[in-house]
Design a protein that fits this description.
- The structure holds 2 protein chains of 2 kinds.
- By secondary structure, chain A is mainly alpha-helical.
- Chain A contains 9 helices and no strands.
- The relative contact order of chain A is 0.17.
- By secondary structure, chain B is mostly beta strands.
- Chain B has a single domain, classed as Cupredoxins -  blue copper proteins (Immunoglobulin-like), CATH 2.60.40.420.
- Chain B is 13% helix and 50% strand.
- Classes of the chains: A mainly alpha, B mainly beta.
- Chains A and B meet through helix 3, helix 4, helix 5 and helix 7 of A and helix 1, strand 6 and strand 7 of B.
Chain lengths: 281, 108
Amino acid sequence: MLATAIIVFREVLEASLVVGIVLAASRGVARRGVWVGSGIASGVLGAILVAACAEGIAAAVNGIGQELFNATILFTAVVMLGWHNIWMNRHGRELAATAALLGKAVLGGSRPLYALALVVGIAVLREGSEVVLFLYGIAIASGESALNMLGGGMLGLAGGAAIGALMYLGLLAIPLRRLFGVTSWLILLLAAGMASQGALFLMQANVLPSLGNEVWDTSSILSERSMLGVLLHVLIGYSAQPAGIQVVFYLATILVIGTLMRVIGRAAPRAPSRPPATASI
Amino acid sequence: MGRTAGFVGMVVLVFAPPTLADDPSFSIVLKNNQFVPRDVQIPAGVKVKLVVRNDNPTPSEFESTQFHREKIVSPGQEIIVFVGPLDPGSYEFFDDFHPETRGHLLVK
């Protein structure tokens, strides 16, 4: 039962941290619960569907269907996270100002919540499909009783969800005017981590070179499978033994989204902004 | 139909490794929640093809954090995993759904 709980916990944790960050990033937005809720629901449905089609997906495209599928949904999530950040950089300041002015945290409804909902859906789908396959495996193997399995699964689910809730509550403690800055960084790092994982799948599919199997090895200091390792893996894309291509994609994602945030963010007409740095000399 | 086939052909060409036919191939079978063989000796410095077959009645995930592979193997199916080129050494792999099931690539 404990073994089941631990495996389910690890998978659920990854998705639930993403949900926690998205909930914090969309704090105060009307109907965000509906968006995030439908993201989770479609993610669960998608997970069952993907698990049911695992054989077909694996055999597709000359045997690299699984890799291409994973890479595609990961890079979709990266684009959505990037798009959210760019949008927020352009409009977020006015929204926060308006919210402060009104004295309450009701923010504009035109925010790209669909982008975040899609990210939630993808996170739940990816981790969920593994949970489904894993539980299905236990269910048909006679080693463990169904009740034990269910108990372990629920325990893991509850534990994973609890960490996500803690993440959310922790972020809520940040004052609203600072919150978007923090979630913006979290989302940027989340995107970079996902891009590095996507690169891994393309490397596995033999589409990208590895550029070195192991750029560094910190597995003796912090294993990727330890609690803290998993946490950092999700949050900032930590890898104990990254391949070169992962590092390249990680840095490139930060560079590209960061640059677009600055360029497109600056292009927006802004109400009283800080004077340029040169003017203060 | 012809166009579809052409497109699929192109995709396959783009994604197919150029040295597909030459890559040395090694078989690993998952049976009774064990990797057979548990230690697989492969040559260093070249790309090799691992054929992982799952003879268990349940799904498995062939995974390694040391040589970066992660692929689900449905029961009764086999997957192909390209690995390397790797430096000499021992690289662990495991079944993510049964983490006690482990094996090593011995790269020499």
